[in-house]
Amino acid sequence: MDTSVIIVSAGSSTRMQGQNKQLALVCGIPVAARSMMAFEKCESVAEIIVVTRTEDIETMQQLAEQYRITKLSCVVPGGNTRQESVLNGVRKISDDTKMIAVHDGARPLVTPENIERTIADARIFSGAVIGVPVKDTIKTVSDGLITDTPPRSSLYITQTPQVFKRSVYLRAVEFASRNHLDFTDDCQLAEAIGVKVCMTTGDYKNIKITTPEDIAIAEAILNS
Questions:
Q1: Is-above-0.90 flag for pTM?
Q2: Cα distance between residue 149 and residue 114, in whole Å
């Protein structure tokens, strides 16, 4: 138990038609609660830190109590960007933390098994992210015209959690801050300092709740 988990739940839910996706119910359980429950079951996880909107802090604490999330150590407000939000959580990790895992709270179907596999790979490679191969042919486009067709065999859909050794992540954060870099993906932080991040193959069920239709998809996956 040496891994601190930062669950990022501070988004504005702009594509959810006025609904807070973190509190949306998936088969009767809020999205954020499902994400916490997955990490609660992981032996490697020592603590969970939730980053959310200021007005949702008390609600997240109540959800943790309701669903018996004993590993929740604190709930902190988010920042102006995703990177700032994650950093707010990182500042609260325990002194004896060796691994840092960052997870989108809007991915409620992540499994404890895949979480543990990603952490295990990060121990070996210093960083790992869960993902799946793309199924479709991808095109790069400029001004409405196709410019390239990358080989599908080399393309993966990146998911979360993304896990890093503490020393690597803190060094990457310091580098980004010193060079005024802001990334939307934690792997980019590690890549910026030359770290080769392992792609841990997961499954396609680990979807991200972005629109109301995703709630129906998530429920269909669970019911199947």
A1: yes
A2: 30
Q: What stretches of the chain adopt beta strand conformation (E)?
A: 3-9, 25-26, 29-30, 45-52, 72-77, 99-104, 127-133, 140-142, 145-148, 156-165, 198-201
* pLDDT tens track, the chain, 224 positions: 899 999 999 876 666 666 788 999 999 999 999 999 999 999 999 999 999 999 999 999 999 999 999 999 999 999 888 889 999 999 999 999 999 999 999 999 999 999 999 999 999 999 999 999 999 999 999 999 999 999 998 999 999 999 999 999 999 999 998 999 888 889 999 999 999 999 999 999 999 999 889 999 999 999 98
DSSP state of 93: S
Give which of 77, 171, 73, 160 is closest to 111, Cα–Cα: 160
Q: What are phi and psi of 45, to 5 degrees?
A: -85, 125
Kindly give the residue spans of alpha helices, DSSP state H, lying in 29-142: 31-40, 57-66, 82-90, 112-125
**Cβ-based neighbours of 53, under 8 Å, separated by 6 or more:** 9, 10, 77, 78
What is the sign, positive or negative, of the torsion defined by CA atoms of 155, 84, 176, 124?
Answer: negative
Report the 10 Å Cβ neighbour count for 201. Answer: 13
Pairing of strands 29-30, 25-26: antiparallel
The angle subtended at Cα 204 by Cα 3 and Cα 147, nearest 5°, is 105
**Domains in the chain with CATH codes:** 3-223 (3.90.550.10)
Tokens standing for residue 149: 């067709």
